[in-house]
Design goal:
With 381 residues, the chain is mainly β. 8% of the residues lie in helices and 51% in strands. The chain contains three helices and 20 strands.
């Protein structure tokens, strides 16, 4: 596995900038560009049998994290500029998703912001702040079949910063290579750089497969032991007529992270399968099954089981939901989920009693709409 020292990274960035500048001097960069702006809003009500207390977030705070408190998941504005050889995007967001899961200040309200240059007919180089390239599911309800995300998705990286090499050799194949500051962070957190990889291939008009990977040392400054993390994800998507299927799984290892000695390699795995049936043009039903196992707790954290032994989280989950779409750009969803921890893991609390299961119920309503759509900019000089 390759790691990049900070000095080497600076040299690499400088070479890329020079390459872009050389290409720019030979050709006009800004021909005719378009600028667009859109908005997305999701409001919710949620109830959990795991008591969080007034004003607090539930365990695994991701989508709809407040209990018994009608609230706003997200209010988001996206801005995008596209030209022949230059592109840029910035997304600003507010709401409970932002407060519960996103990066700390100064980037808490910035979902992503990056710009890119086309240095070859099939190669773009982008730099800045990105939403994660990783995983089977996306993060926002509007992008997924289900409203909630699986526990495996919750422990995947959410956001990242660095440089992206976007290569599209064919119409069916896309390859993205990342030089990153670290795992789910915008700001450099140690003295090494990490690498990310994303590959997707359209096997047909109705299906596609993909692989996403993260490779980086998660050691904190001053730690004498290396914590090399290798996180792999594979997924498969299928859509045809009234059916939509999504299947994926993660397998992650990390050096010197076992729960007993902290000198052995620890491993976690997760998987999910989601199916959606479009009953009518506006009504659909969906279901998801998930598993998550992190026996050494290096990602999830540790708890004491019934034998007073430290262990990481192990659980299964089942989700069932109904969706109604008043318009193609909007949705109303009613969703329930059952999360079951391993028999001797009592993670959840209700009225002072400990339980190894939690039941969830949420109602969400969301809409996306254009504020400015594909406005032509002036031709570059």
């Amino acid at each position: 596995m390759i790691f990049f020292h900070k000095k080497f990274s600076l040299v690499l960035v400088s070479l890329l900038v020079l390459l872009s500048a050389k290409n720019s001097s030979a050709q006009k960069i800004d021909t005719v560009g378009t600028f667009s702006m859109s908005a997305y809003i999701d409001a919710y009500y949620a109830y959990y049998t795991d008591t969080a207390g007034p004003g607090n977030y539930s365990k695994f705070p991701s989508i709809s994290p407040r209990q018994n408190s009608p609230s706003l998941n997200i209010a988001q504005i996206s801005m995008q500029y596209n030209a022949e050889k230059v592109r840029a995007m910035a997304v600003i967001h507010f709401g409970d998703i932002t407060a519960a899961t996103w990066a700390p200040a100064p980037y808490n309200n910035l979902m992503e912001a990056h710009l890119g240059f086309k240095v070859h007919p099939k190669l773009w180089i982008d730099a800045g702040l990105f939403r994660t390239h990783f995983g089977t599911e996306f993060w926002l309800p509007s992008e997924n079949i289900a409203t909630s995300v699986s526990i495996g998705t919750f422990y995947e990286p959410l956001y990242e910063s660095g440089i992206r090499f976007n290569y599209d050799p064919t119409k069916k194949l896309e390859i993205n290579l990342f030089l990153l500051n670290g795992f789910s962070t915008f700001i450099e957190n140690n003295n090494t750089k990490s690498v990310g990889l994303g590959v997707t291939y359209a096997t047909s008009d109705n299906s596609g497969i993909g692989y996403t990977g993260y490779y980086g040392d998660e050691s904190v400054p001053g730690d004498l032991l290396k914590h090399m993390r290798i996180h792999n994800n594979v997924f498969y998507n299928y859509t045809k007529k009234k059916w939509k299927v999504q299947v994926g799984g993660d397998f992650c290892t990390q050096q010197n992270s076992d729960i007993a000695t902290h000198t052995k390699t620890a491993a976690m795995y997760s998987a999910l399968a989601t199916v959606k049936y479009q009953r009518t043009s506006k009504c659909a039903i969906y279901a998801r099954a998930e598993i998550f196992s992190d026996p050494d707790g290096y990602m999830s954290g540790v708890i004491l089981d019934q034998q007073a032994k430290m262990t990481g989280y192990k659980l299964t989950g089942y989700t069932l939901g109904l969706e109604y779409k008043p318009t193609p750009e909007s949705y109303i969803r009613i969703e329930g989920r059952d999360l079951q921890m391993q028999e001797d893991q009592y993670l959840f609390y209700n009225d002072g009693n400990a339980y190894n299961a939690r039941y969830e119920f949420m109602v969400n309503a969301g809409v996306t709409f254009d504020l400015i759509k594909n406005v032509l900019t002036k031709k570059g000089e």
